[in-house]
Specification:
7 strands, extended, seven-stranded antiparallel beta sheet, 20% strand, alpha+beta
Length: 187
């Protein structure tokens, strides 16, 4: 900071920084009242306890937020939710977006190229909630799903052995979309 003869700038800045530190300390000390569902880290604050969505049949299954999925995309809003009270293994992927190609997703789902889309809900002033099948990563016991980027990074030189199969599958996907006169925004 540039010095001034009366040290006004330094004093104003010092007061503002002090006020900011006090405000942050107050927020960190704030606790939720007993009985209030304290939001987990990374769960969107614009929603209450339950994921707002209706199934394609019109039901409201009352999914509870579990956690945000870590991604390499900075503004990606992907979460995991479940029906804790009925089945802890019942997990769904929740995607919060303002625009989404639902029709393309449903087309690819019908042909086995996309996870099952269970439902969606639009609430004014909030991103649309899309609830779909959660594709789990592979484990030692089961095969699973990974992005092509992770697949090639993990397998390094061995991944090229799969390139013809991957190209053929991507070509099939493009043919399905072309026949339906649809375009995917990620392509």
């Amino acid at each position: 900071m540039f010095d001034d003869l009366l040290h006004n700038r330094q004093e104003v800045l010092a007061r503002q920084l002090f006020a900011l530190r006090k405000a942050v300390d107050t927020l960190e000390q704030r606790s939720y009242p007993v009985g209030v569902n304290r939001p987990s880290e990374g769960v969107p604050r614009v929603y209450k306890t339950y994921v707002p969505y209706k199934t394609n049949g019109g039901e409201d299954p009352k999914l509870e937020w579990l956690f945000r999925l870590p991604t390499n995309v900075p503004h990606s809003l992907l979460f995991v939710a479940t029906k804790r009270s009925t089945d802890p293994a019942y997990e769904r992927l929740v995607k919060l977006v303002h625009t989404y190609g639902k029709e393309v997703h449903q087309l690819l789902e019908k042909h086995g190229y996309a996870p099952m889309l269970y439902g969606r809900q639009s609430l004014e002033g909030r991103p649309t909630t899309y609830v779909m099948e959660r594709l789990r990563p592979p484990t030692k016991e089961e095969s699973g799903w990974v992005t092509l980027f992770k697949f090639f990074n993990k397998l390094k030189g061995r991944a090229t052995g799969y390139s013809n199969t991957i190209k053929a599958t991507l070509s099939e996907i493009l043919n399905v979309m072309e026949q339906a006169n649809m375009v995917h925004s990620d392509l």
